[in-house]
C-alpha cells in the first residue's frame, strides 16, 4: 500500500472517530492511532495473501496431490499405450515374460510393427519405466482375469444354509439338490448339514454327505470338505462355485478322457477287423 493511501486512511479514521483530521490530534493520540491503523492494515493484507490463513479459519491449506495411485490404476486395467511413448528409454518385458532390458522407444516401436505386439505400461515409478509387449489375446485374457478378481472382491459371496436328515425321501433329496444347483449358479456358498435320524445310530454320515454332493449336476468347489461335527451327530460341508483354474483343469481332463476313449475304440475296431479278416481267411481256406 502506498504512503498516500495510508495517509488518506489515517485522515479518514480520525475524522470518523474524533470529528477532525489528523492535524488536530495530540502527539500521543496520533501515535496510538497510527499503530492501530497499521496493525489493521497489516492484518487485512495478510488475510488476502495466498500464503496466509485467517485466524479461526478451519480450512486447511491446499496440498498438492501426488500421483501415487497411478500405478494402482495401471494394475487395475490393462490398456495398450499405442505408439506414443513419452519416455526415450524404457525397460521392456517380452510377451513370454523375458526381461529384454532397456531399449530405445524407436526400437520398441519397430519391434511392435514387426511382430504385431502391443505395448502395455506396468509401472511408471520405476527408472526407467517398465513396459510389457503383449498380443491382443493376452490383453483380453488379462482383462477378464482382473475383472473376475474385482468382482470377487467387490461382492462377497452370500452363505446359504441347507439342513436335512439322513434317510430323506428320494423326491425331497432331489429338491434339495436342485436348490444347491440354483444357489451355485448365483455364485453363492452353501453350508450343507446332514443330521442323523433321531433314534438311529449316526454311522457313515460323512460318506452319505459325499454321495449327496456327487448328485449335484454342476461342478462344485469346496470351502470345507465333508466332515463330522456336533459330536458325531451331523456331517457338514461348505460348497462354492468352481474357480476358473478348476474349470480349466476339468476341461483339460475331459478332453484327455475323450481322446483316450477315442483311441481305445479305434484300437478295438482294428482288433475286430483283424479277427474278422482272419475268420474269413480261415473260412475261405476251408472252402
Kindly identify the CATH topology of the largest domain: Translation Initiation Factor IF3
Tally of separate domains: 3
Beta content comes to 15-25%
CATH homology group of the largest domain: Translation initiation factor 3 (IF-3), C-terminal domain
Q: Which CATH architecture of the largest domain?
A: 2-Layer Sandwich
Question: What general outline do the C-alpha atoms trace?
Answer: flat
Mean pLDDT: 75
How far is the N terminus from the C terminus? Answer: 134 Å
The largest β sheet comes out as: 4 strands, mixed
- Order of strands, main sheet, comes to 2-1-4-3
Count of individual helical segments: 8
The counted number of beta strands is 8
Order of helices and strands: HHHEEHEEHEHEHEEH
Computed Rg: 41 Å
Low-confidence stretches: 46-59, 61-74, 276-287
User: How would you classify the helix and strand content by structural class?
Assistant: alpha/beta
**CATH class group of the largest domain:** Alpha Beta
The helix fraction, in percent, is 40-55%
Domain Translation initiation factor 3 C-terminal: 158-239
Region (Disordered): 242-287
Biased composition (Polar residues): 250-269
Protein name: Mitochondrial translational initiation factor 3
Feature tags:
8 strands, 50% helix, T_IF-3_N_sf, Mitochondrial translational initiation factor 3, protein biosynthesis, 4-stranded mixed β-sheet, 287 residues, T_IF-3_C_sf, alpha/beta, Translation Initiation Factor IF3, 3 domains, Ubiquitin-like (UB roll), translation initiation factor activity
Concise overview:
Helices cover 50% and strands 18% of the residues. The chain is α/β, with parallel strands linked by helices and 287 residues long.
